[in-house]
């Protein structure tokens, strides 16, 4: 695995990669003519919103080259953008590679690329080289911008191309990107993580924190708004650390104030916020903002200060609760969501009851609850006192029940009110309904014409279903 420490000027590297794209266009026009149809591509994305955003960049490059994106893995180019937060995610990828090998035997034009966090692990790459020799390209989290160059190398070499970087300071701007939604978009403001929570593999596979220049972020958002985007999600492993690596430091709260001034932008969201870095200035900006959504994702992970220390979270239960009180005092109706891990090594019943206590005191609108699973390569994987599976499942069910009860209690009072809703899509379960998202991040399903998708409209919340509502559009 090689380390790329030198920063290549963004504009020169962008031009270099665009040149590869142009050269490949000619190749693929000839290839499509030869086989008598357009070449197709499919991207399967595993994991977090950072991966989803990376997949949009991959799609943009492939479309510029000349591929038509499709929903089936029966395509000429298949990319697996992998996650490695949990080891069973790795097993899922290996299983699906077996299926791809059969497809590749039927289609001699097929090319397979693997990228993302899983590829940053040396053992994974060695296994693929040995057991999945039909894979064409392997690259990691730091050099997605090089995809066209890697495709060119694969065409010329006729063998597997592996290009994994251990880390980078480089951020390449202005390459193609294909958004999933025309009216909302994710915008990376930083990459990497410096926190090294004892259960988490992310700092090892995504590298150290590095922030984008605010001018590039503002430019990207303005271009998105000009293209019809009304809501943006600012993305980073810890957005509250934004700006610390810039030549001229800038805080996240200062960045938000600049973004707030962009005309035509209606809504601002961001994630993820690490509690230890959430500043008073950020709370003040949220309080005074007209565009920041009434929702904050604030992962607590556990309620026991003892467990939090072992997790290396760098705050106590009391500090977290004090922070929540500060936020609620400034933004009284804010919707708080969180992440919770059940069954961390050494967790006792008393520790778990502390987590339940936090849930009851904070009263989260929703929580992403996870059963702890060992992650090779993290300090927690080698800890003694692994909690028995039956105890973990019992605690998980008790926690889930409490969260669902509180969520329903919080949502019920808004029944009958009229709220602003961003209409996002046709409902996946009932195509006679549309689905929209409130400022507080809850969903509402209602009847309406698909032409409303992408617009912010008034919806009356008629029936509360706990985590979502049924409503009626007020037009």
UniProtKB/TrEMBL annotation:
Its cofactor is [4Fe-4S] cluster. It comes from the Bacteria. It catalyses: N(6)-dimethylallyladenosine(37) in tRNA + (sulfur carrier)-SH + AH2 + 2 S-adenosyl-L-methionine = 2-methylsulfanyl-N(6)-dimethylallyladenosine(37) in tRNA + (sulfur carrier)-H + 5'-deoxyadenosine + L-methionine + A + S-adenosyl-L-homocysteine + 2 H(+). [4Fe-4S] cluster 2 binds at residues 193, 197, 200. Residues 179-409 form the Radical SAM core domain. Binds 2 [4Fe-4S] clusters. One cluster is coordinated with 3 cysteines and an exchangeable S-adenosyl-L-methionine. Its EC number is 2.8.4.3. Monomer. This is tRNA-2-methylthio-N(6)-dimethylallyladenosine synthase. It comes from Mobilisporobacter senegalensis. The gene is miaB.
């Amino acid at each position: 695995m090689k380390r790329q420490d030198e920063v290549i000027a963004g504009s020169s590297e962008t031009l270099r990669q665009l040149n590869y794209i142009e050269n490949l266009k000619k190749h693929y026009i000839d290839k499509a003519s030869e086989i008598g149809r357009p070449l197709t591509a499919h991207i399967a994305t595993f994991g977090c919103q950072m991966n989803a955003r990376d997949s949009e960049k991959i799609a943009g490059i492939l479309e510029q080259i000349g591929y038509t994106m499709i929903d089936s893995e029966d395509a000429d180019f298949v990319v697996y953008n992998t996650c490695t937060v949990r080891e069973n995610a790795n097993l899922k990828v290996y299983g699906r590679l077996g299926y791809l090998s059969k497809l590749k035997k039927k289609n001699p034009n097929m090319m397979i690329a693997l990228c993302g966090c899983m590829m940053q692990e040396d053992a994974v790459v060695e296994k693929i080289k040995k057991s999945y020799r039909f894979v064409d390209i392997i690259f990691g989290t730091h050099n997605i911008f090089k995809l066209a160059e890697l495709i060119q190398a694969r065409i010329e070499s006729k063998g597997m191309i592996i290009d994994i970087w251990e880390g980078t300071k480089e951020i390449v701007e202005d390459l193609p990107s294909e958004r999933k939604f025309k009216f909302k978009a994710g915008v990376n403001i930083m990459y990497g993580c410096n926190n090294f929570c004892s259960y988490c593999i992310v700092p090892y596979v995504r590298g150290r924190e590095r922030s984008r220049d605010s001018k590039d972020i503002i430019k990207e958002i303005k271009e998105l708004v000009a293209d019809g985007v009304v809501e943006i999600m600012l993305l980073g492993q810890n957005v509250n650390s934004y700006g610390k690596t810039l030549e001229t430091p800038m805080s996240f709260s200062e960045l938000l104030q600049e973004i707030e001034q962009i005309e035509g932008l209606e809504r601002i969201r961001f994630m993820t916020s690490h509690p230890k870095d959430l500043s008073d200035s950020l709370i003040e900006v949220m309080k005074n903002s007209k565009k920041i959504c009434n929702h904050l994702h604030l992962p607590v992970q556990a309620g026991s200060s003892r467990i939090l220390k072992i997790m290396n979270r760098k705050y106590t239960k009391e500090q977290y609760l004090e922070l929540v009180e500060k936020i609620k005092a400034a933004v009284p109706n804010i919707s708080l969501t969180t992440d919770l891990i059940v069954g961390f090594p050494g967790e006792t019943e008393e520790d778990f009851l502390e987590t339940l206590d936090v849930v009851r005191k904070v009263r989260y609108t929703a929580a992403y609850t996870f059963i702890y699973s060992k992650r090779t390569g993290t300090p927690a994987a080698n800890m003694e006192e692994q909690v028995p599976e039956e105890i973990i499942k019992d605690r998980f069910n008790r926690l889930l029940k409490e969260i669902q009860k509180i969520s329903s209690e919080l949502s019920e009072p808004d029944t009958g009110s009229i709220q602003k809703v961003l209409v996002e899509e046709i409902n996946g379960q009932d195509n006679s309904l549309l689905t929209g998202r409130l400022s507080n991040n809850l969903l509402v399903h209602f009847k309406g014409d698909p032409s409303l998708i992408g617009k912010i409209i008034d919806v009356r919340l008629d029936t509360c279903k706990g985590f979502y509502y049924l409503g009626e559009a007020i037009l």
